[in-house]
Design brief:
14 helices; 37% helix; 6-stranded mixed beta sheet; alpha/beta; 14% strand; 388 residues; 14 strands; globular
Length: 388
């Protein structure tokens, strides 16, 4: 069965599938053929630039711990595609995943529907959650909001808008207002909208949500989340405001317990035994927050970085925010056709750097792996962190 799964991955990552093509026409067509499973689900839909995955993880963990059968859809993955589709934190089985990938692809081909990788995954997710009769589905937007393939949800229980900043400007627009407008595309009539007044796109969010829809994130000082990073406070506030607004029956003890068990790999995740920190920050705001947190949590520690990113990111600004004098810097040109080269990255860095060529020697400090989620799993394997 491993071969079947590998074949499914080869299909998803093939040149004919592995690209972005925003729009709802194709996903709507394939979902219609398989009976519109998304209409059978009670969904919480989460969009934003940073923090989406953390908010989804917190909400789904609380719902699972409260006894609800809870589906969770996130992206991208670190090690396995099956990480993206979970029920009560258990990944979809490889065999089930592969069979569904091939079935959806075959149906699309037979009906002349040209689906992308993410559209196939989205269709598989909706069908899998509906077949397993989840009580609730917590769904992270892939890119943007308005034209993202997850945005076929007609009546979400709640739309959550996390922190908005500059990213994917070539697709979403070059101002905060334009980006916020795209993210707010997940807001539907008569559904709750949870957002923070601190959000850079708050004025747009306010104009897109009717007054009786908008619930402002409250400050939950007495709750402690086991995810590290100062920015997780805002994510926690959004998550708990959502839970308290939609699921007011969930006991506080359950919430407090669930917050100790939340897992979101690759986000300011520290492996103490190896002195390695992994962070999926991949845009200027995320990188700035990463550096701020490194200076808080690892003050006076020597830092070594392995950094790589895609060419379409604002990597000059990211590099400028991330590194300081005395840091040891390695740039990684990883296996992705849009990966920035060592020459491109080093040319905009004012500090000395080296090209990353594999496992590094022992280091008396903290090694930070960051810049693109696409490369993190390979680097982690180089440091013998092979599974999560």
């Amino acid at each position: 069965m491993k071969n079947l799964y590998n074949e499914a991955i080869n299909l998803l990552t093939s040149q004919g599938k592995f690209y972005i093509n925003l729009g709802l026409e194709r996903i709507s067509a394939i979902l219609d053929i398989i009976g519109n499973p998304q209409d059978k689900l009670k969904c919480i839909h989460v969009a934003g630039t940073n923090g989406k995955g953390s908010v989804c993880s917190v909400i789904s963990t609380i719902l699972s711990e409260a006894g609800y059968k809870t589906g969770l859809f996130t992206s991208p993955h670190l090690f396995r595609y099956t990480e993206r589709i979970k029920i009560n934190n258990e990944e979809i089985k490889e065999e089930v995943f592969a069979k569904k990938i091939f079935r959806i692809n075959e149906l699309a081909k037979n009906n002349d529907i040209h689906l992308t990788e993410f559209e196939i995954l989205t269709a598989v997710m909706f069908e899998y959650f509906a077949e397993n009769e989840v009580d609730y589905a917590v769904i992270e937007v892939g890119l943007g909001g308005k034209c993202d393939s997850t945005n076929v949800i007609k009546n979400p229980l709640c739309s959550v808008i996390t922190s908005i900043d500059f990213d994917h400007t070539e697709r979403l627009g070059d101002t905060i207002e334009k980006i916020a407008q795209e993210k707010c595309g997940i807001i539907k009539q008569n559904c709750l909208v949870v957002a923070s007044e601190k959000n850079k796109g708050f004025e747009v969010i306010k104009s897109c949500a009717k007054e009786n829809q908008l619930v402002l994130a409250k400050n939950f000082e007495d709750y402690e989340l086991n995810l590290k990073g100062s920015y997780q406070k805002e994510n926690l506030n959004l998550s708990l405001t959502t839970i308290k607004s939609v699921f007011s029956n969930i006991d506080d003890k359950i919430i407090q317990s669930a917050l100790k068990h939340v897992v979101h790999h690759g986000r300011f995740e520290y492996f103490e035994d190896k002195k390695i920190l992994v962070d999926g920050a991949h845009n200027p705001n995320g990188i700035k927050v990463l550096r701020d947190n490194l200076d808080i949590y690892f003050k006076n520690q020597k830092l070594r970085f392995v950094f790589g990113c895609l060419k379409n990111k604002d990597y000059p600004q990211m590099i400028d925010s991330l590194f300081k004098s005395g840091d040891e810097i390695y740039f990684n040109h990883f296996n992705h056709n849009n990966s920035a080269t060592y020459e491109e990255l080093s040319s905009v860095c004012k500090y000395p750097s080296k090209e990353y060529k594999g496992k590094l020697s022992d280091f008396n400090g903290i090694t930070v792996i960051c810049g693109s989620l696409y490369m993190i799993s390979d680097i982690m394997k180089d440091f013998n962190i092979n599974n999560l």
